[in-house]
Structures
1.
Amino acid sequence: MRQQIVAGNWKMNGTIPETENLIKQLLAGDSKNERATVLVCPPFISLQAAAKALEGSHIKLGGQDMSEHEKGAYTGEISASMLLTVGASHVILGHSERRQYHAESDDLVNRKAKAALAAGLTPIICVGESLEQREAGQTEDVVGRQMRGCLNGLGPDDLKKIVVAYEPVWAIGTGKTATPEQAQEVHAFIRDLVKDIDTSAGEDLPILYGGSVKPNNAKELMAQPDIDGSLVGGASLKADDFIAIINAC
Ligand code: 13P
């Protein structure tokens, strides 16, 4: 049985008091699911307060990005060890918003993934095609290229420690979700690609779906054989919706 994960990517939302309040609501509600790891990824500035609010609970903590460097003169950056010492276990890498607004390449995501693994953080590597690419029939080309670029040089042991999130760009924040069949097709493609490198790493790889996941579509998506959970944006900011998605897993 593969590990199931439901992760909330809060993006640039929530002040520290709002973060504490949302965590309080999650912990007061039915946010536990024996079958799934639950993870929240607040903005960097809220991580410490979030870690305190989550102390002793079942909810894990992740960063939304990190530097490829260990330390030094990189103004504005946050390192893997900084994330670890604040209590994070995971880090989202290569989100399409980082690729789009901060020109992140597969090469850079690859270097960040290696730095995360070296530090002992679990990278959640995001891939996904744009609407134009899907309509031009290039989904597998694009996702395949992203996957190979981001995983370049990772051996079987590393591949057993990563998580992949398939997030079609056209489904993020648009209310347009991939159908379960569309998502399943790409998830199976991603798994096969990793299996070609190492069979058991591919079999065990948790592949999350992200893009307008809501309480009313989560169950059908996560029921697909190669969908092992979800990376939730907007709906993870509402405790009731996020809890419903956790329980749909
Ligand atoms: P939405 O759930 O708001 O579409 O965002 C998805 C996402 O980008 C998660 O990383």
2.
Amino acid sequence: MDETTKKQPSADAKSALIAQNCSVIRAEATADELQTIHKIDVLASEQDISLSFLKELLSLPKNNAVKYLHAKARQAVENVYGDKIFLRGLVEITSFCRNNCNYCGIRRSNRTLERYRMTPETIMACCQDGYKYGMRTFVLQGGEDMWWTDERLGDLVSQIRAEYPDCAITLSMGERPRESYQRLFDLGANRYLLRHETADEQHYHYLHPEEMSFQNRMQCLQWLKEIGYQVGCGFMVGSPGQTPETIFKDLQFIRSFRPQMVGIGPFVATQHTPFADEPNGSVETTLRLLSTIRLLHPHVLLPSTTALGSLHPLGRELGILAGANVLMPNLSPVENRELYNIYDNKICLGDGIDHCYDCLSARMESTSRRIVVERGDFVG
Ligand code: 5AD
Ligand code: FES
């Protein structure tokens, strides 16, 4: 049977199933679990969380209350975006970076890494591939590489804008001056991803070298928003020095900043970085935080990240089942991927988009959601 004739439950029937799922879980819950479930309902209706309840959520054993948290988050995302999963085609345009973040494999002090910079022609070919596979957002990501001046990046953005008027262009090129963000926006970029990494200043300094500034990071996010970009912030789960208190600040920051996108994924210890011997972040904690963020900010576009898929064989499916609604398959040429080593043991290194597309579609079947051919803009 092909896709069009296969019998699928309607979106309404599916959300009814998920709603039922919440009541089934409630019916099976113990008295203790019901107390937590009640607090999850309050979290969802008030779109707010206390530090003590955050600590409780993060320390619960995997029980019915945790199942309920995920079911409630799925219900919240389906209320806004239905059963749709949006694709973002990721093009890792340069592995040169002037920064030296303590967690990141492409930090400038990592002299073991062979660096690359894609040509505009290669980048356009990646977009063409992505478009063929239904992608209507291209994410240009890279280290903070000074070769990509406003002039060069602007030319690239203009070219993509002209060839793909129906697509969103997302940039993820780090901190730049306000004028640079403005110029790129004027040339047709629509969205910008800049993870804040942590909303706790002290923790920020633990994760980054002295020359990097927490204030400037936050300032950049503010500028991007003022200019009119759809903005994505985010953080790693389980980064060294992270505590429930710093996570609480991240959640409060998300509540007040109201970004259109939030990227979170587990920290992955990476060789040739100062954090090479630290433990990886937890997949379970990441899933709980995905659901929590979904309930605090139901409209947010939330990717189920490659880092999650790299630490768990079903990581991306689990992320979707916890309330995520975006996937970011890699469009970079296979020969570049191993060199864009921001963290170790990244999946899909040898897989072209043809393989990844089929793989992701098959994986998403198990979530009863479907990949769509759409830009997937934020619904306000
Ligand atoms: N593990 C997980 N995520 C990482 N990132 C960078 N290094 C790592 C790592 N070791 C994330 C950062 C960055 C994004 C592009 O990738 O949060 O903002
Ligand atoms: Fe790339 Fe599965 S998504 S191999």
